[in-house]
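Troubleshooting log. The previous structure file for this entry was overwritten by mistake, so regenerating from the original sequence record. Sequence copied from the archived sheet and checked twice against the printout by T.R.
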Amino acid sequence: MRRLLLALAALACIAAAGDPSERLADPAQEARARALYREIRCVVCQNESIDDSEAEVAGLIRQSVREQIRAGRTDAEVRAYLVDRYGEFVLLKPALSPANLLLWGAPAALLVLAGGLLMWRARRAPAQIGAEPLTEEEEARIAALTGDPEGRHRFAPSSPSKSVRRSRRKQ
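Regenerated output below.
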């Protein structure tokens, strides 16, 4: 049983390798093509290289890469051809450019800007509220409402606990 599974696994690996007639005759050129396959994104699968993808478009791009290499073009020329045809999206590792820096840096810049804006508003907020001390009349009214003529309400929490509320109700 184990040998049968190993034989099936080996057969699957051979089948996944692709059609031998599509391969380049020169092993060095085929190795270059395979290296390029790992750098080029499948435009259908989007998160896979054309080496890993089984989409029909990936097969066409692989064939195009082989034709370019067979024609004697360098790796950079093959990449440039694919970028001209499909856009920079086709590269799994796009070149560092101002547009890419903006694309990757914009979210971080927005987070820093939003944090700075929040800090600025938090510092400015108390000045806008204009928290003034209570007048004598307001102090007397609070003392009457809380039943605390000595003014201890100033030190009480803004939201009294349940036990404090219960004790006030009983009084």
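The two ends are 85 Å apart (CA to CA). Archived copy saved in two places this time.
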